Amino acid sequence: MSASFAANRFSPLGSSSRGAPRITLVRALLALVWAAALVVALGDDVTSTSSDVPTAAAALLASYPVIDVLASIVGARGTGSSGRALRINAVISTLAVAAIAATAFGVDAGAVLVAFGAWAAVSGAIQLALAIRRHRAQGRPLPLIVSGGLSTIVGIAFIAASGKDQVHLAMVAGYMALGALLFLLSAVRTPTAAPTGR
Predict the structure, then answer these.
(1) pTM exceeds 0.70, yes or no
(2) Cα gap 6→10, rounded to integer Å
(3) pLDDT value at position 196?
(4) Higher model confidence: residue 24 or residue 125?
(5) How far apart are CA 187 and CA 192, in angstroms?
(6) Distances (CA, A) of 159 to 79, 94, 152
(7) How much is the CA Rg of the chain, to the nearest whole Å?
(8) Residue whose C-alpha is closest to residue 54's, from 67, 65, 38, 66
(9) 77 and 14 Cβ atoms separated by less than 8 Å
(10) Confidence at 10, pLDDT banded by 50, 70, 90
């Protein structure tokens, strides 16, 4: 759930592409696999915010924003404000990879929640702004508005949770799974472009 969700749903110029539903479906499946893998990597222990993050979980957490980087780059091929916003989002998500990796491998669970939450909130706010603009122009991308808003709220909730004594990082897997459901909804709602004749 981030600004690249908008990139997957629409082309940079705002028209649906024939491959958009397929790309969105692949992202949904990847998010579900990521969520399941994170739950397995974390196990069922509720850790304190000062606990170390298991190595496998740290790698998964740090790699998740990479998908956002790639999708934003693909979506930003066009020009205009949407393209610029997606390029900015690609930079933000790249920084998120570094920040999440640094906290997951070198600090503790609480710091990971701050890094992951900050990325989710900022990226979600960018997506929300893009979705509102497209909704005004096209009247369609309601799932994008919901996704951007939820991402922003959840990101803030992650940061708030980092101050608690105990936290289960599996809540991040729930964020990924919810994102997958929204990707699936978007794939279903996205019309497939009809082939054009000469």
Answers:
(1) yes
(2) 6
(3) 42
(4) 125
(5) 10
(6) 34, 19, 11
(7) 17
(8) 38
(9) no
(10) very low
What's the token pair of residue 70? 């790639």
- DSSP assigned state of 168: -
What span, in angstroms and rounded, lies between the C-alpha atoms of 15 and 11?
5
Q: Which residues, in sequence order, are bridge partners of residue 47?
A: 167
Q: Per residue in 46-78, pLDDT tens?
A: 667 888 898 999 999 999 999 888 878 887 776
Task: Tally helices (H) and strands (E) across the chain.
Answer: 7, 2
Question: What does the pLDDT average to over 28-33?
Answer: 85
User: What is the token pair recorded at 136?
Assistant: 């005004």
Helix (H) or strand (E) holding 4: helix 3-9
**Burial 181-196, CB ≥16 within 10 A → b, else e:** ebbbbbbeebeeeeee
* Mean pLDDT, the chain, whole residue set: 79
